[in-house]
Amino acid sequence: MRVAPQLAALQRIAAFSAAMRGHELGEWQTGEGFAQASCVRCGAQLRVYFPALEPEMDGPALERECSREAAEEEAA
After folding, report:
1. What are the backbone dihedrals phi and psi of residue 51, each rounded to the nearest 5 degrees, phi first?
2. Fewest CB atoms less than 10 Å from the CB: which of 9, 11, 39, 54?
3. CA torsion through residues 31, 33, 39, 43, sign
4. How far apart (Å, rounded) are the C-alpha atoms in residues 52 and 37?
5. 32 Cβ neighbours under 8 A, 6+ residues apart
6. Within 13 Å of residue 59, how many CA atoms lie on the same side as its CB?
7. What is the pLDDT of residue 57?
8. For residues 68 and 57, what is the distance between their CA atoms, to the nearest angstrom?
9. Are strands 29-31 and 56-58 parallel, antiparallel or unpaired?
10. pLDDT of the residue at 70
11. Sorting pLDDT into bands at 50, 70 and 90, what band is 62?
12. Which residues of 13-44 are buried (b: 16+ CB within 10 A; e: fewer)?
């Protein structure tokens, strides 16, 4: 299986996980073996990686609920 379809599948899983926390992700930016997006409401980022051995995802959009207040606190 090629990396691009696997990365796209991982993006869908990550977007679903972020949505479960109330985030609405904007457009994905992709690079060599990774992609990232930010919540359009609070700015929390989400990154997905597809290394050769094991795919992974991380970022505040997976760690906390969507909150404009949290975004304002981080900006201050």
Report:
1. -75, 170
2. 54
3. negative
4. 22
5. none
6. 26
7. 84
8. 23
9. unpaired
10. 60
11. confident
12. ebbeebeebebebeebeeeeebbbbbbeebbb
Alpha helices per DSSP H over 20-67: 60-63
Look at the chain and report how many structural domains it folds into. 1
Instruction: Check residues 66 and 73 and name the one with the higher pLDDT.
Output: 66
Share of the chain above pLDDT 90, in %: 42
Which two tokens mark 70?
């949290």
Q: By CB neighbour count within 10 A (0-12 exposed, 13-18 middle, 19+ buried), where does 53 fall?
A: exposed
Amino acid residing at 60: P
pLDDT for residue 28: 94
Query: Quick one: what percent of the chain has pLDDT higher than 70?
Result: 83
Q: Are 66 and 39 in contact (CB under 8 A)?
A: yes
